[in-house]
Every structure is written in structure tokens, then in C-alpha cells.
TrEMBL record:
It comes from the Eukaryota. It is a multi-pass membrane protein. InterPro entries: MCP, MCP_dom_sf, MCP_transmembrane, Mito_Metabolite_Transporter. Pfam families: Mito_carr (PF00153). Belongs to the mitochondrial carrier (TC 2.A.29) family. It is found in: Mitochondrion membrane. This is Dicarboxylic acid transporter. Solcar repeats lie at residues 20-102, 109-200, 209-294. One of its GO terms (biological process) is transmembrane transport. One of its GO terms (cellular component) is mitochondrial membrane. Keywords: Membrane, Mitochondrion, Repeat, Transmembrane, Transmembrane helix, Transport.
Length: 302
């Protein structure tokens, strides 16, 4: 046997190192949330109108909207929803992933660690997304007001321009306190609890990592998030709907509402909020997983 052949046999064959998977685009979560929010917009619209204008009952509020504005009225303020999702949701998914990296947390980490990452993400996203949140709430609540009190924004961009022109730059931060507080609660209770429930359900051995697991985990996470966030959500909606002289601080709004309506005012709109958050949470994560698969396909990773 020749020497070159002997050397070739003696030397072990080099094993190619596994290809390191690139991170997904930071905006995927925002796109998934925008798609989900567009589908569930009528329920979110109903929730805001119940919270801000005193409509009684989800079905009655839906009927009132259709009666006064037609079926298209169920999508009033959709541009505000898009603006909000493409600012707040992009930021919160990105910040949640970065916060988990900073803390060294994974889906299998303790609940408190995931909740801390969610709180960090919510604080950042609530501040960044505040103008979009104001536009969404105002556009959704506008047609439920008497004609003389309507703002009549053409869309979310027109609304932002008019807000700055008519109410000053400071108006963009209206309700930022309760909004950030709600965002902290939402991300700690929704994103973190979804990861927690998903990991716990997998431990039972009764679930595989598929749509059934995602549906069950998101159902539990949506219920937790709706209940935890309801008080801050109601106060935020009432503050943001107010304009000019109607504007009140969070504490003033809290005292007035508590005096006139009792403590249960903090859970007004819970049913439509829950009915919106359940399918929204499921749609977000299913859509996000499909978008990730599409990215993998374009990269040749599938």
C-alpha cells in the first residue's frame, strides 16, 4: 500500500461543524401581532368602547356599533391598531428576547425569572408604543361619542399630526404612566406565563410541541393576562379617550370612577377583553411560528 493511501486511511475524516442558526428578524413578532390584532379588532373595539363610554354589555355594544355605523364600523380605528402593533408589539417581542438573554433565561426558567424579563420588556415597549396606543384608543372610541365631541381623525397619522398641532407634543405622553404599568403587567403575565405554561405542559408528557400545546398554553396565559391587566387597562382607556379639558390624572380618574361606579369598574370590558386576548394570543404565536418557518425556508434551513 502506498504511503499517501496509508496516510489517508490513518487520518480521521473531518466532521463539518453544525451550521449556527442565525437569529430571526426582530420585527417578526410585530408582524404576527399586527395580523392577529387585525382579525380580532372588532372585539378590541368593543372592549375600549365599554371601558371608555359606558356601553352596557358586549353584545349590546356590538349591536350599537353595527346599528350606527354598519358592519364596517366594527373596524373603526384599524389604522390605530396597526400603528400600535408595529411600534409596541415589535418592541415588546424584541425586548423580551433581549431581556431573557440578559438574564440567561430560557422557556424552562423559573416563573419569576420569565416574569422579570417580561416586566423589563413591558417597561420599554409601553413607553415607545404610547403614541400608537393613544391613537388606537381615540380612533376606536370616536364614533361612540356624540357628534359634537368627536375628534374625526382621518387615520392614525392624521391623528398624530393633529394631536401635536392642537394639544402640543406633551399630548403624546398622555396616559404613559398607566400604559407602561399595563405593558409591564401584560408582558409579565402573557409572554412569561405562556413560556411557563408551555414548559409545564411539556413536562406532563401529554403534549408535544405542536398547535395543541400552543393553544392550551395560550388559553391559560390569556386568562391570566386579561385578569391581571384589566384595572390598568380600564384606567388607561379612560385617560387616553379624554382630550383637552377633559384630561385627568390617573389618580383623579381612579377616585372619580371608584366613587361613581364602585371597585368593579376596574373589570369593565373583561369578557370582550378575554375573548379578544384568547384568539389573539393563539394567532400571534401560530403566525409567529409560521413566519419563522418561512424565514428558515428562504435561508435554506428546512
Amino acid at each position: 500500500m502506498s504511503k499517501p493511501v496509508e496516510e489517508a486511511i490513518a487520518q480521521p475524516t473531518a466532521v463539518a461543524a453544525p451550521k449556527k442558526k442565525q437569529p430571526y428578524p426582530f420585527w417578526l413578532g410585530g408582524v404576527a401581532a399586527t395580523i392577529a390584532a387585525s382579525i380580532t379588532h372588532p372585539l378590541d373595539l368593543t372592549k375600549v368602547r365599554m371601558q371608555a363610554t359606558g356601553d352596557k354589555g358586549m353584545i349590546n355594544s356590538l349591536r350599537k356599533t353595527v346599528r350606527t355605523a354598519g358592519v364596517r364600523g366594527l373596524f373603526d380605528g384599524i389604522t390605530g391598531t396597526w400603528l400600535r402593533q408595529m411600534t409596541y408589539s415589535i418592541c415588546r417581542f424584541w425586548a423580551y428576547d433581549e431581556s431573557k438573554k440578559l438574564l440567561g433565561a430560557t422557556e424552562k426558567s423559573p416563573a419569576w425569572e420569565l416574569a422579570l424579563a417580561g416586566c423589563m420588556a413591558g417597561g420599554i415597549a409601553g413607553f415607545v408604543g404610547n403614541p400608537g396606543e393613544i391613537m388606537m384608543v381615540r380612533l376606536q372610541g370616536d364614533f361612540a361619542k356624540p357628534p359634537e365631541k368627536r375628534l374625526n381623525y382621518k387615520n392614525s397619522i392624521d391623528g398624530l399630526i393633529r394631536m401635536v398641532r392642537e394639544e402640543g407634543w406633551s399630548s403624546l405622553s398622555r396616559g404613559v404612566g398607566p400604559n407602561v404599568f399595563r405593558a409591564v403587567l401584560m408582558n409579565a403575565s402573557q409572554l412569561a406565563s405562556y413560556d411557563f405554561f408551555k414548559a409545564e405542559l411539556l413536562k406532563t408528557g401529554a403534549f408535544d410541541d405542536n398547535i395543541y400545546l400552543h393553544t392550551t398554553a395560550s388559553f391559560a396565559a390569556g386568562t391570566v393576562a386579561t385578569t391581571v391587566c384589566s384595572p390598568a387597562d380600564v384606567i388607561k382607556s379612560r385617560i387616553m379617550t379624554a382630550s383637552g379639558g377633559e384630561s385627568k390624572s390617573a389618580m383623579q380618574m381612579l377616585r372619580t370612577s371608584f366613587k361613581n361606579e364602585g371597585a368593579m369598574f376596574m373589570f369593565k370590558g373583561w369578557v370582550p377583553a378575554w375573548m379578544r386576548l384568547q384568539p389573539t394570543t393563539m394567532l400571534i404565536f401560530i403566525t409567529l411560528e409560521q413566519l419563522k418557518r418561512l424565514v428558515d425556508y428562504t435561508r435554506g434551513d428546512l
